Structure formats: C-alpha cells, structure tokens
Amino acid sequence: MENLLIVGSGGREHALAWKLHRDVPDATVHVAPGNPGTEQMGEGVRNVDVPSSDLDALADFAETRSVDLTVVGPEAPLAAGLADVFAERGLPVFGPGRDAARIESSKAFAKELMQQKGVPTAEHRTFREAGPARDHLERVGAPVVVKASGLAAGKGAYVCDTVAEAREAVDEIMVQRKYGDAGDRVVVEECLEGDELSVLFLSDGERAVPLVPSRDYKQAWEGDEGPNTGGMGAYAPVAAATPELVETVRREVVGPVLEGLAERGTPYHGVLYAGLMLTESGPRVLEFNCRFGDPEAQVILPLTGASLAEPMRAVARGGTLRGWRPETSSGAALITVLASGGYPRDYEVGRDIEIPDGVAGPNRLVFHAGTDREDGRLVTGGGRVLGVVGLGDDLEEAAALSREGADRIRFEGKQWRSDIGHHELSPDATGA
C-alpha cells in the first residue's frame, strides 16, 4: 500500500489531503501535524504528531514509513531546507530546495532575478536601513507599496496612499521588527493598478504546466478595504485569464524565472505561484510563492480533474512533466474564509465552533485552517479558522453555496466577507 505525507496544518493542507485521498484512495495519507479537519477525514487519512518545523523528524518519519511521496504545504519548511534534507536521504519530495525557495523567502532576491531575466514587474528599490528607505519615499511620493523582504505569513505588504503611511510601514517592518528577521530588508515599489490574478504552475525544473487560474482577496473588509491578511477568500476560474493570457505568463514570466534559477544551479521542482497584476500594459508580477497558495488551493484543487499524485511523484523523483495535463473540471469554485474577530490584528482563540449538519456535502466543502480540540470540543485556534468552498455550475451558484454555509457556521466573533468574487458577480449575487 502506498504511503503519502503532507507537511503542514492549515486549510491548504486539508485541501491537499482531500485531493490526494481522492486521487489515490487506496493510499494512506499522513498529515504532519494536520488539524482537526484532517483528523476526522476517516480511514486512509491520519495525523502525525510531528511539527512542520522539525525537518529531521519529518525525514525520519518518511524513511521509517517508506513514504512514496512527500508534499510540502507551507513556505517556512521549504525556506529552511526541508527538500534538501529529504534529497540528501534519497527521499522523494515535491517542493523546491532552500536556494530555489528564495523566490518567496527573499523578495529582494526575486526582484533581482526578475530584473536579470527581463520579467515584467513593478519598479522598485531595496533597502537595508530605515533611514534611506524613508528618504526614498519622500522622493517618489505615494501611492507606493512597502514590503518586508522575508517571510511574513502574507501580512508583510503595505499598500500606502500617503507618504506618512509608507513611513509608518517602514517603521513597523524595520524598527519595531513586527515580522522579525523578515524585516532585515524592505522593498519599496510602485503601486500597480489593475485586477490581481494568481496562476500556479507545476514545474519539473524545465517545464511549467498551469493549473486553473484564480483570484484571491487579501483585504480584511468588504469592498477590498482594511489591512492585508493571509487571504479572506478566492474563486476560480477567472474570466480574464484566457488561455492566451496564461500562455503569455508561462512564456514571459515563469519560463525566464525557471531558466534563471537553473542557470544558478538551483533548478525549481514543485509548485511555482505567480501573483500578477493585470495592467493596461500586460501582466506584471507582484510576487512569487514557492508553494500552493492559501486559500487559492482550496478552489484550484477541486477543479483539477486529473490526479495530482502522478505528476507530483514524477517531479519528486527527478522525472518530467512531459505529456501531463491538469484536465480542468467544468464549473466554478469559491471559498469564503471565516476568521477570528479582529484578525489580522489582535484576536482571541478558544471560542467554541458549531458546524451544523448539512453544511458540508458533495457541492460544499469545509476546510479547517485554524481550529483546535479542547476537551473534545472544536474551538478556534488561529486567525483564519475555516474555509467554506462552494462548487457550482457557475460562479453565482458557487458563491451562493459558499455564503450560505459561511452564514450557518457559528463561533463568537466570526468575521467574513460576503463579497468574495465581486469582480465577476452581479450586485444581487454579492449582496451589494
């Protein structure tokens, strides 16, 4: 019997467990450490009491259990070198090595690589000290975007309408050290205008095969207002993401980046996430991620008709993606994220969660992101608590299913956006 291992504990990992369990129903899917949602998936899916930060313990488990494929969910273990540890032991792992993962773990590195390879992105400057960054802000003015260069769990980017806001962002990142070592360098870049788009590609180091494009919503509040979060919702597919546009992104964005990484001796194996802004002059890169997006994975995976286990195994063993296609399913998917009150700022955990019977079903999935068990009770355990995915023949049906489910789930302080997908939905569908 085949053994699979998923590293991580969030909504993305719950969705990966759901997908791989469907793709390889006879396999045992281990999730390290998993969450209450993966714990209750039933026979064939098991949580493993190993934290995603313990690289050697994860490798020991994979070796002892003869794991056939390990899929790494979060960015932090990849940035720490988990794939390198596995490779040194000859263990098949789907995810880039530490040096290639710098495409996400260092925005400064990503900008340098894009500049070298001619990849379209925002004009920018990188600073190691707060003073020169503040001086630069006075010269360029606003609006402007300020980003912590390192990993900040999706919360280290500030879109600033005034120079004063931008100076405050620099202070939070570099002086107050809100994101720790992620603030050793700060990237200041022009504020691009347009609609955002996420396109994830599976890569074997040379080839890049796109999955269904999606759009996520970072702002905490409705109408795309409020502070940036790790993501309050997403939908797929996206009408603007025509096959021609996706091919342009593959050819002009992802291809040159893969080529540049290979030239540096760090070929990229895994999922490469391209976060784009669709500007009047064409797609330009906002960011790269070295793993599946969260919450994008929760809408992309249900719409991926082909088995992902097959291409992941091939990449993990140094093989090729030649001939593989994702066979996107028809219909649409939309996820509404239920967050703790106050997220992404201060919030409380330990609130009882009630998920009524009938909320989850064939056309509606509930993925756990930040939940815990206390004395047998399901309680909130993080900022983003649950994701409710609606699956419909079209986006309006998917949105209605998602919002209905989100409304029925109960916990104190529940915070959610009822306008996810508003770019493509009628005012009646968004409740506006």
Low-confidence segments, ≥5 residues, pLDDT <50?
A: none
Which band does the percent of strand residues land in? 25-35%
Largest sheet: 5 strands, parallel
* SSE class: alpha+beta
CATH homology-level superfamily of the largest domain = ATP-grasp fold, B domain
- In spatial order, strands of the major sheet run 3-2-1-4-5
Number of helices: 14
Structural Rg: 21 Å
Oligomer: single chain
Span of the ends, CA to CA: 51 Å
Overall shape: it is globular
CATH topology of the largest domain: D-amino Acid Aminotransferase, Chain A, domain 1
Q: Given this structure, which CATH class of the largest domain is correct? A: Alpha Beta
Describe the structure.
With 432 residues, the protein is of the alpha+beta class. The chain folds into four domains: 3-97, 3-Layer(aba) Sandwich (Rossmann fold); 129-184, 2-Layer Sandwich (Dna Ligase, domain 1); 195-316, D-amino Acid Aminotransferase, Chain A, domain 1; 332-430, Phosphoribosylglycinamide synthetase, C-terminal domain (Glycinamide Ribonucleotide Synthetase, Chain A, domain 4, Alpha-Beta Complex). Helices cover 30% and strands 26% of the residues. The chain contains 14 helices and 22 strands. It has helices at 11-23, 36-39, 55-64, 75-80, 82-88, 102-105, 107-117, 130-140, 163-175, 243-263, 296-300, 309-316, 395-408, 427-430, and strands at 3-8, 28-33, 45-47, 69-72, 93-94, 124-127, 144-148, 157-160, 186-190, 195-204, 208-210, 215-216, 219-221, 225-228, 233-236, 269-279, 282-289, 332-339, 364-368, 371-374, 377-380, 384-392. The strands form six sheets. The protein has a five-stranded parallel beta sheet, sandwiched between helices. Strands 12-15-18-22-19 form a five-stranded antiparallel beta sheet. The protein has a four-stranded antiparallel beta sheet with strand order 6-9-7-8, with helices on both faces. β20 (371-374) and β21 (377-380) form a beta hairpin. α7 packs across α10. The longest helix is centred in the middle third of the chain and has 21 residues, at 243-263. The radius of gyration is 21 Å and the shape is globular. 49% of the residues are buried. The model has no long low-confidence stretch (mean pLDDT 94).
